[in-house]
Write a structure and sequence with these properties.
mainly alpha, DNA polymerase, domain 1, hpI Integrase, Chain A, 3 domains, 3-stranded antiparallel beta sheet, 6 strands, elongated
Length: 378
C-alpha cells in the first residue's frame, strides 16, 4: 500500500514529524508511539531528522538489524495476523463458513499489509485502506480490523486500537429484488454461463442450501443407492442444537447431483472447476485446487447474470445475487403445495417466520377482500 500523501501543513516537515497546535509531535515508525516536542519549528525538525537517521538502519531490510539486536522479530502486520488467527480465532465458536470468510480476509491483509510494521498503520493509514471498499464491505472489513487491533493492544503489539478510531458507517439496507424463474432459467441456458456454475444454480434451487454449504458439499455425502444426500448447514453449528439433514432427493435434485458426480474433473466436491491458472498462493488458500470459494461463486454468478441479460431492466444494485436463489426455491416449493414445515426443515431455519420471509416477494400482491357480514336490523 502506498503511503498516504501528507497534508499541506505537514508537507514541508521531515517524515514522522507532525504539527500539533503551536508545537509538534514525532511518531516512532517502529512502535507508532507519538512524542510531543514543545520546541521551535527549527529545533523540532533537527530532532526529527536525528531520530529518523538513528531508526533508519533498524528499519532497513524488514528490520534485520533490530531483530539481531533484540532477538525478537519486528511486530509487523503478518506476525500480528498469524498470531490473531492462531491465538484468538480458535476460542470463538464461529461456524465453519464464517471462519472461511475471515480466513479469506486475513489472507488479503497479509498480502496487502503484511510487510508494514504494526506501528506504521496509524488511523490515517487504516482509514485510507478501508476507503477502497464499498459501504457494506467497508463495515465488514472495519469490524474485523477492529478485532485484530484489539488483540494487538491486548498482546502489547500496539498502543491503541487505530481501526476503532476510523469512521463508523451504517450498513446500507439491502435492496435486492427477488429472482424470477424466467430470469434464472435464462442464466442457466446462456452459453456464457460456465457449466460448473449451472450445476451450482440448480443444486441451490433444488436443495435450498446456503452458498457456503453448496461449495463445500462433498461427493462422499451422496448415497445414490438410498437416494439421499447429507448436509450439516454451517450456519447452524453455533446453535445449541446444530442441524444435520439427510435429504431424500427428488428427481431434479438427483439429476444435478448425478451430473456433478459424472464430471471428468477429479474433485472431492460436487461443485468444482478447473482454474485457468494454478497460482501457488491461490491453491494454498483453498481446501482443494478444484474447489470454489463462496466469494468466487458470488462473483462468477454476478458476471453470468449480467452476461445473460437476465435482469437488465433492474438497476445493477438491485439485481438478485446467488443468495436469492434460496428464496426463489423456497417459494417454488410453496407453489407446489409443500408444507411450510417441510421447507423450513430443508432450509435449516429455526422458526417458521424466517421461512415465510424467504417465500414472500415473488409475486405482486393484489387487493385481498375479506368477506364479512353486516346483519344489523333497524
Amino acid at each position: 500500500m502506498s503511503p498516504r500523501p501528507r497534508s499541506p501543513i505537514n508537507k514541508k516537515l521531515p517524515p514522522n514529524l507532525y504539527a500539533n497546535g503551536k508545537y509538534w509531535r514525532y511518531k516512532n515508525p517502529i512502535t507508532g508511539k507519538m512524542t510531543s516536542i514543545n520546541r521551535s519549528l527549527e529545533e523540532a525538525i533537527k530532532m526529527a531528522k536525528a531520530a529518523n537517521a538513528r531508526l533508519a538502519p533498524l528499519m532497513a531490510g524488514d528490520g534485520e538489524m533490530l531483530t539481531m539486536i533484540t532477538g525478537e522479530k519486528l511486530p509487523n502486520m503478518r506476525t500480528l495476523l498469524d498470531r490473531f488467527e492462531a491465538e484468538w480465532l480458535p476460542d470463538r465458536k464461529y461456524a465453519a463458513s464464517t471462519l472461511d470468510e475471515i480466513g479469506y480476509k486475513l489472507e488479503r491483509y497479509r498480502k496487502e499489509l503484511g510487510d508494514l510494521l504494526v506501528g506504521q498503520l496509524d488511523v490515517l493509514a487504516v482509514a485510507e485502506y478501508l476507503d477502497q471498499f464499498s459501504n457494506n464491505a467497508y463495515t465488514k472489513h472495519r469490524g474485523l480490523l477492529v478485532q485484530v487491533f484489539a488483540f494487538a493492544v491486548a498482546k502489547g503489539l500496539a498502543e491503541r486500537n487505530v481501526a476503532e478510531l476510523t469512521l463508523v458507517k451504517k450498513e446500507e439496507e439491502k435492496k435486492r429484488q427477488r429472482h424470477t424463474l424466467e430470469g434464472l432459467t435464462k442464466i442457466i441456458e446462456a452459453d456464457t454461463t460456465p457449466v460448473w456454475l449451472k450445476r451450482a444454480i440448480k443444486l441451490g434451487l433444488a436443495s435450498l442450501q446456503r452458498r457456503e454449504d453448496i461449495v463445500t458439499w462433498t461427493k462422499a455425502s451422496v448415497d445414490l443407492e438410498k437416494n439421499t444426500i447429507s448436509v450439516s448447514p454451517g450456519k447452524t453449528e453455533g446453535y445449541e442444537t446444530p442441524i444435520h439433514l439427510k435429504i431424500v432427493m427428488g428427481k431434479s435434485l438427483r439429476e444435478v447431483v448425478v451430473e456433478c458426480m459424472k464430471s471428468p474433473i477429479l474433485s472431492p466436491y460436487l461443485i468444482h472447476y478447473r482454474p485457468r491458472a494454478r497460482r501457488k498462493e491461490q491453491v494454498d488458500a483453498k481446501a482443494h485446487w478444484t474447489s470454489v470459494t463462496p466469494d468466487y461463486l458470488t462473483k462468477e454468478f454476478r458476471k453470468a447474470r449480467d452476461a445473460a441479460k437476465a435482469y437488465d431492466h433492474m438497476p445493477i444494485s438491485e439485481r438478485p445475487t446467488f443468495h436469492e436463489i434460496r428464496a426463489l426455491g423456497s417459494w417454488l416449493y410453496e407453489q407446489q403445495k409443500f408444507p411450510t414445515e417441510y421447507v423450513q426443515a430443508l432450509m435449516g431455519h429455526a422458526d417458521e417466520e424466517m421461512t415465510k420471509h424467504y417465500q414472500e416477494g415473488h409475486e405482486k400482491k393484489g387487493i385481498e377482500y375479506v368477506e364479512v357480514g353486516a346483519g344489523l336490523a333497524f
